[in-house]
Amino acid sequence: MKLGIFGGSFDPVHLGHLLAAQAAREELELTRLFFIPAAQSPFKPETRLTPADQRLRLLRLALAGKDWCEIDEQELKRGGVSYTIDTVHDYARRFPEAQLFYLIGADHAWQLPKWRDAAELARLLEFVVIPRPGQSAPDAPAFLPSDPEPIRHSPPLPAPFRARLLAGFPLGVSSSQIRARVHAGLTIDHLVPAAVAEAIRNQRLYL
Ligand code: ATP
Questions:
Q1: Atom 17 (ligand 1) nearest CA
Q2: Of 1, 88, 147, 173, whose Cβ has the fewest other Cβ atoms within 10 Å?
Q3: 40 DSSP 8-state letter
Q4: Are 11 and 163 in contact (CB under 8 A)?
Q5: Choice from 27, 130, 135, 190 to test ligand 1 binding pocket (greatest atom count within 8 A of CB)
Q6: For the chain, what are the domain ranges?
Q7: Contacts by 56-63, CB closer than 8 A, 24 or more apart
Q8: pTM value?
Q9: 73 within 8 A of 37, measured Cβ to Cβ
Q10: Measured from the CB, is residue 4 less than 6 Å from ligand 1?
Q11: Is CATH 3.40.1180.10 the classification given to domain 2-171?
């Protein structure tokens, strides 16, 4: 059994997330993929996220009918700062026979060595780096260039991490861009699923 774990703020979920999920399912032949919305990212302590119930509602709309996708609310229920290692320990306990994969955007992957218990994370799962055009941090080290092509055939992360790069459908959409566009009165059609765009309008989110 191959299980994917996809953590994030999902504020809101957008097509970049959904295309990454679809590519990971196809390229890794995942059995199931778990979307795990964070209560609070350790790397964005000052960011006030949209309340969990609203983010969850949008995720449910985005994933409706995708029976290989599940939403895991454990980080929201734990509350406080969400550390990936706590969640991954839970998966390792619940699915001892499974091969675990953790999806992470190329913009975040270079920070992995700073994650809590990084060596333990590296032992428990393999990372799947999602290409993200124009989004790599300016001080990202050379092992993660903004153009993923040169590293397509070499490991995208240094040891002890086990990692592979997704081919995927690179898309430069972000949640902050969606929020900014709504705030500016611009359309978000085709950047999020139609049902998500409609719910954002109806709930008057991100105004
Ligand atoms: P924000 O703009 O608010 O920082 P975000 O668009 O990065 O949000 P998150 O929910 O924080 O969305 O992302 C969850 C994970 O998905 C992260 O690992 C992030 O790098 C990755 N990700 C998000 N959007 C994309 C994208 N368009 N392409 C590749 N990876 C992405």
A1: 105
A2: 1
A3: S
A4: no
A5: 130
A6: 2-171
A7: 57/199, 57/203, 58/10, 58/12, 58/13, 58/192, 58/196, 58/199, 58/200, 59/10, 59/13, 59/35, 61/193, 61/195, 61/196, 61/199, 62/13, 62/17, 62/18, 62/192, 62/193, 62/195, 62/196, 63/35
A8: 0.92
A9: yes
A10: no
A11: no
Distance 174 CA to ligand 1 centre (A): 6
37 Cα nearest atom in ligand 1? 10
Q: Is 40 in the pocket of ligand 1 (CB under 6 A)?
A: no
Ligand 1: does its nearest atom lie under 6 Å from the Cβ of 62?
no
Give, for all 207 residues of the chain, the pLDDT tens digit: 999 999 999 999 999 999 999 999 999 999 999 999 999 999 888 889 999 999 999 999 999 999 999 999 999 999 999 999 999 999 999 999 999 999 999 989 988 999 999 999 999 999 999 999 875 544 444 445 455 554 454 567 888 999 999 999 999 999 999 999 999 999 999 999 999 999 999 999 999
The answer to whether the CB of 10 is under 6 A from ligand 1 is yes
Instruction: Decide: 167 and 23 in contact? Cβ < 8 Å.
Output: yes
